């Protein structure tokens, strides 16, 4: 088996069903395009019906696939995530790959509709809740759950790891957008660790990737006033790869037989060492805390 991975290694995905969040642009859109052009049925998630529908039209035109389904939901609203999960469950009884890709970065302090700091709400809590709502389908499908994290998970999060209280996430006085983004992306890794440990016996394979620095709207839309946002808006392009190339890491994680439960990847198919951030009880404590937040918000 080749140590490298390219589109030439893509298996035929006819008969497989894939869900991609944030598939209207950037890495999500390019993921959906690769899956669709290799025969998969793809549930293309967008924030609104209009955005998801437009992406489906564009993907149809580019791939010729008739197996594209638009689903929508605003990930900054748990009620909307619940409706999204219901729509996905209606559209398919099987999910072979759940790609948790949608994300925001570089935002000034803002709370979601449910009162959760926006990076944590969209990048982590919404995906956690979506996973929980789809848990049964994922188990019966023995699905692969691919979380799209970031190098920021290791470099910019709180020194002690993701804080374990909503008050700390929402602490406006000490807010730092780079740190909140890093925390949300570390939460993606800890989520993967927990899913791997607790759902692996049910056949779910959880994996997490760092796509590297990629020139997408994520950078251009970083609206915050910090150096981090200024870097994303103005300088990141210089170091960035193109999304159609960078997408290979999350595609590899979705389909390669080399990907085992609980593994992490970067630079397409190189192991990403996240052990320094995943020792101890952090994953279990964060999982419990997130369940508590969901219960308190009325979304158990
Ligand atoms: N680009 C990079 O350098 C880089 C580096 C490391 C990790 N990543 C990660 O890669 C993933 C994809 O990022 P990208 O660079 O492809 O970004 P992107 O081009 O900005 O795409 C982000 C996607 O997420 C969706 N999204 C954002 N907020 C949403 C919400 N509230 N509800 C529903 N959908 C929402 C966007 O839809 P709308 O158009 O409706 O906003 C869009 O489809 C993210 O998780 C990001 O953290 C990116």
TrEMBL record:
Query: What Pfam families does the database record attribute to this sequence?
Result: adh_short (PF00106)
Q: Which SUPFAM superfamilies match?
A: NAD(P)-binding Rossmann-fold domains
Q: Which UniProt keywords apply?
A: NADP, Oxidoreductase
User: Which family, according to the similarity comment?
Assistant: Belongs to the short-chain dehydrogenases/reductases (SDR) family.
Please give the name of this protein.
NAD(P)-binding protein
